[in-house]
């Protein structure tokens, strides 16, 4: 094996600090004039890819990182987060321009990523375990299935021990477990994996000169997004009723009986 060719999918989402609001038509969440940024789990993926490259200097047996490619499929403004990824350390970017009305679902994204992996000859895909807008948490697993590659989900630590072996500590119900596999591989990242770096101004300026290829679905042999789900209506959850105070335990028991909870 000559080296790692890492593909990092990133997604443009409403900034995690913004409280989403349902639009007037109740067809979805309001996105106009709302701050957007890179999906937080994807920031972890970019950071980990760069750290793998940096760790090579201290691990003689680890393979070198030949290239880190940031990829996104979305509206024209998605190029902004690809530039951010390149400012964090990705070598180049690929942007498949997709209209907002044709937004891809997880299976469609996985099929597209499979084409990208094959075209870019990638041997390691690192992506967030989920996007904070739809919270599907499916794309990584679907991609691994389509590629017939090993996968490690919800990674909290990634170690490349030799030229072909990857060891991942992943979070599971009730604790963690360590798995080991051979490349090629799909890894999805979890919050405890690392703390993403800030893109410095010099690196932001350098990122403007890095290659960002604009593509279409047709360039990868995909004619349409294949949307299978239709959102009928989106509405706010009903407001919670206010609580009441009781003087003592007997009062609490009486109130629970009154509410039919006992």
UniProtKB/TrEMBL annotation:
The Electron transfer flavoprotein alpha/beta-subunit N-terminal domain covers 26-224
Name any cofactors this protein relies on.
Answer: FAD; AMP
**What binding details are noted for the cofactor?**
Binds 1 FAD per dimer.
Q: Which CDD domains match?
A: ETF_beta (cd01714)
Q: Which keywords, in A-to-Z order, does the entry hold? A: Electron transport, Mitochondrion, Transport
Short name of one Pfam family: ETF
Gene3D superfamilies in the record = HUPs
GO MF annotation terms: electron transfer activity
Purpose: The electron transfer flavoprotein serves as a specific electron acceptor for several dehydrogenases, including five acyl-CoA dehydrogenases, glutaryl-CoA and sarcosine dehydrogenase. It transfers the electrons to the main mitochondrial respiratory chain via ETF-ubiquinone oxidoreductase (ETF dehydrogenase).
Oligomer status and interactors: Heterodimer of an alpha and a beta subunit.
State what protein this is by name: Probable electron transfer flavoprotein subunit beta
Q: What organism is this sequence from?
A: Decorospora gaudefroyi
The beginning of the lineage is: Eukaryota, Fungi, Dikarya, Ascomycota, Pezizomycotina
């Amino acid at each position: 094996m000559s080296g790692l060719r890492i593909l990092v999918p990133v997604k443009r989402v409403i900034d995690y600090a913004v409280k989403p609001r349902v639009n007037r038509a109740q067809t979805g969440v309001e996105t106009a004039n709302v701050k957007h940024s890179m999906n937080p789990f994807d920031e972890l993926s970019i950071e980990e890819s760069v750290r793998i490259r940096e760790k090579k200097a201290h691990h003689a047996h680890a393979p070198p990182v030949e290239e880190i490619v940031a990829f996104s499929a979305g509206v024209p403004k998605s190029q902004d987060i690809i530039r951010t990824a390149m400012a964090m350390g990705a070598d180049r970017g690929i942007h498949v321009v997709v209209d907002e009305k044709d937004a891809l679902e997880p299976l469609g994204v996985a099929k597209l990523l499979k084409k990208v992996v094959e075209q870019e000859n990638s041997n390691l895909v690192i992506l967030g375990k989920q996007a904070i807008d739809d919270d599907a948490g499916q794309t990584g697993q679907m991609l691994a299935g389509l590629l017939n590659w090993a996968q490690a989900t919800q990674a909290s630590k990634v170690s490349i021990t030799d030229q072909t072996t990857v060891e991942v500590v992943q979070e599971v119900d009730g604790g963690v477990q360590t798995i080991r596999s051979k490349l090629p591989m799909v890894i999805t990242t979890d919050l405890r994996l690392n703390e993403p770096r800030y893109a410095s101004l010099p690196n932001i300026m350098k990122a403007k000169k890095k290659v960002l290829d604009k593509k279409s679905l047709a360039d990868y042999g995909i004619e349409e997004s294949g949307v299978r789900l239709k959102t009928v209506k989106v509405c706010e959850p009903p407001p919670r009723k206010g609580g009441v105070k009781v003087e003592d335990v007997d009062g609490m028991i009486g109130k629970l009986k009154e509410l039919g909870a006992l």
